[in-house]
Amino acid sequence: xxxxxxxxxxxxxxxxxxxxxxxxxxxxxxxxxxxxxxxxxxxxxxxxxxxxxxxxxxxxxxxxxxxxxxxxxxxxxxxxxxxxxxxxxxxxxxxxxxxxxxxxxxxxxxxxxxxxxxxxxxxxxxxxxxxxxxxxxxxxxxxxx
Length: 145
Hints:
mainly beta, Thrombin, subunit H, six-stranded antiparallel β-barrel, three-stranded antiparallel beta sheet, 0% helix, globular
């Protein structure tokens, strides 16, 4: 934490007033770098099987729903609590294809489960039954987004 005159402090890049009168102007600029996504995302609800180890270390297998998908993974709604960094296997019940995934995001637990972001260990653009090409996502012969 940096201290400036008149009771001002600076922590984590933000100036805050700690005490005293404001007797000079201070500004800070912040630069945020946002990397472009590797593939486009699409809202796509489908049922998949998820298997792995829960927060308690016990094995689980459950049927869950996708919310958002792309060529490199997706966002699921899981009932089991799981840890970030944990490995799970998703199975597409229509094709019996399996994909190993790493948990990269955990949302807040809710009544319907927890939003869990997963990343495929190897890209699998056809796992979801969609085609991801040139920013257009198609299912069969129709454009989804």
